[in-house]
## 1
Amino acid sequence: MQKKPRIAVIGAGLGGAAAAALLEQAGFNVRVYEQAPAFSRLGAGIHLGPNVMKVMRSIGIEDELNRTGSHPDYWYSRDWKTGEIIAQIPLGDYALSHYGSSYLTVHRGDFHSLMIDAIPDHILSFNKRLNKVEDLGDVVRLHFTDGTSEEADIVIGADGVNSKIRDHLLSAEPPKYTGYVGHRAVFPISAVKGFTHDLCTKWWSDDRHMMVYFVTQKKDEIYYVTGVPEASWDMSKSWVPSSREEMLGAFDGWHTGVQSLIEASENVTKWPLLERDPLPLWSRGRLVLLGDACHPMKPHMAQGAAMAIEDAAMLVRCFKEVGIDDHQTAFALYEANRTARASKVQLVSHNNTWLRTNENPDWCFAYDVFNVPLVEPSSVLGAA
Ligand SMILES: Cc1cc2nc3c(=O)[nH]c(=O)nc-3n(C[C@H](O)[C@H](O)[C@H](O)COP(=O)(O)OP(=O)(O)OC[C@H]3O[C@@H](n4cnc5c(N)ncnc54)[C@H](O)[C@@H]3O)c2cc1C
């Protein structure tokens, strides 16, 4: 009997975990290798739009997420100084009836932990940091820093913005620092004095912003993430500690609502916002990329992880459509059906215009990766 092709997923972040859960569910032979020794409840929140929640339904964690996260009634955009509402985008019940799934904001650690729980333990290995790839033609050999190696027939690079798989396919090149940082803080709402916050608000000035939302169903924890210009970044660091004092300087003169959050935040971290130009290829031979490994973006549409998760779902759909033995056709179909959308989201995120005015977000939120009509690779090439 012919053996099932072995699929290795490098990285168990949000994209890799989604790929692993969906591949396992579809009966493929999959293993996941993650460099971290374990995952902790990192101090960050995340938006899960209806486009992502449809994938969560398929993975089987939609109901639990709906019980875990906050369901904002609106996305409010407000002026930094006056607090005036400059846009109000309906979410809540409207999202559920209009898009067929909820719009959630949730603690990133809680979300990731549900995703990891959806993967059987025996297919996930922690403490496996990939440091070398050997493509031998009929098989790929993966070498890890602990001195071990594994073989696979197909390798999915879900290893984030500094992807080793991307480096192997193209050449080692660091991502671009955009000249912006994001400060992040999560804290109990009980610490916030003097202002009643909406469930989800982005405060805007011309050169910076603060996105604020609750991360639990109980609304006992609130989160902010900023976008603030900063000339340079030491690329050897993925984040550094920040402080209330630094935040007070960066948001001097801003509305009382923003000040109330800064006053309440004990632990603030600061992250570089990184990007890459669209890659000339997403796959070669037996290797394929997804998520931040191929299209890292500024987080200003709150859709970076969503794109990684949609990529994962589309890749699995293409394996099923074409058959796993013809992986190169599956890769071409996958790329043809993901590049335009990922590049558009990358561009809008770069420009930081999303929902600043009362625009219609349907093109983003209504996307259903399982039912969107597939385009053929040749029609994409022909159109180029
Ligand atoms: C400040 C900030 C705020 C953000 N807010 C949002 C938001 O609200 N909504 C949203 O959708 N997105 C947001 N994003 C973007 C989002 O975090 C990323 O787009 C998303 O995490 C990409 O998922 P991924 O699985 O591709 O990569 P990652 O989540 O980076 O996962 C990669 C995984 O691979 C592992 N790995 C790396 N190298 C190796 C190796 N050599 N061997 C083995 N394992 C390896 C890593 O440990 C990690 O677990 C934000 C980003 C930032 C910086």
## 2
Amino acid sequence: MKDYLVKATTTDGMFRAYAVDAKETISTAQKDHDTWSASSAALGRTLIGSLMLAASVDKSGEAITVKINGQGPVGGIVVDSDSKGHVKGYIQNPHVHLPLNKKHKIDVSKAVGVNGFLEVTRVSANEDPYTSSVPLASGEIGDDFTFYLAQSEQIPSAVGVSVFVNDDNSIGAAGGYLIQTLPGASDDAITKVINRIKEMPMISELLLDHQTPEEMLELIFGKNNLHFLDKMPVEFYCNCSKQKFAQDLAGISVDQLETMLKEDRGVSVTCNFCQSKYRYNEEELRAIIAAAKQKKASSK
Ligand SMILES: [Zn+2]
């Protein structure tokens, strides 16, 4: 089944809710980056949280970049996503595998570390990019998104993100939910939701049991208490191309490019986000150098 994300509000108007099944999305990330269990969980949870955060933005066309670095063994994580269900990302150290924690789960907190920040940059068409960051709450990623929404956006929320990794490193299940409290929510209703979340099985268990995103939200709010507003496909998608990287290369110094031409008779670049490789031969690199010179001349 293809990955998708659902958006809903509760019939009492107190909550907004999002849920996503992202197994294929996280599987693509796992294969592209050859991630091992702890790295898969850390990158996967960040991809899932970012997808839902981007989907929760009202302005269409806005894109977000999420950066997490907690000084743990996986190093930095960078994820880009947009409101149309596209997400891409990478992790500094893809080959991290750790012993399971006390709850027999992947120790994401240890892998990510807690001495650092979660940073979100929002980019929309006609506005300057806006960045805000919060200290990491636990390095478990879900808690960190929750803390970010409460601190930076003043929206009391609950974020659950989960990735189940099989013994052969393939992804068994991946998904999550994001719940936002709307201004009219009563304390009673909020307590009830918190308790439901505590009582319900882990998200990865629900997904392994073939529960849908709709069913996950129904478990939290009850069957007839939701209006589903939208269902949107999601995927790991990178928009890089040989032409785009050529434009980036034309932005570096002419000296550097000429050294590459002389010493390597061309240049190869790898996309951080999807690991695609692009090779520019001598002739192509000469064209890039010409573009770089032109750029320099026109900026004078
Ligand atoms: Zn790419």
